[in-house]
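Sequence in, structure out.
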Amino acid sequence: MISFTPHTKYGRGFTLIETLVAVSLLVVAVAGPMSLAAQSLSSAFYARDQVTAFHLAQEAVEAVRSVRDNNVLLNIEGTQTDLLSGIPSTDGDPFTIDTRDNTMTACISGTCGKLRNNGSLYGYGVGGNWADTRFTRTVRVSMVDGGTDEIEVLVEVRWRSGAYQERSFTIAENLYRWVYDGT
């Protein structure tokens, strides 16, 4: 009896369709976790920037409070001083604060410049290793309800996440004239 055995050359391995299906499954299996990792990384960078913006905003509020409190001390020591002396504007005009020495400077044409960093401090230093950051901090102080005893300090920190949308964080706090300063 003669038996016929198929040629084994075509009986082994994968066909083209089987290979395409296997590659497709592999791509789906790898793309999902990679997409999730990329999204997680993006969220982590946003959270880092948001925490930095919060601290920069709170730092500016504390600088305005410090100026007010230093003026309180001057009054206590006998030097008649307006508690808001040293604040560039109480009409809501924007200004910057370099918290290294509480220097307050009105923003030219309403646009405040970018904060700079020297590797450890944020400020508006020049020269050396000071470089622009992605953060812009704008401070506005205005009298509450047209009175003279309470001010609102409004600080907005803006930054751009990569080449995408601009983000911002705003904080507000009210400060009072809690001692008589003669005004």
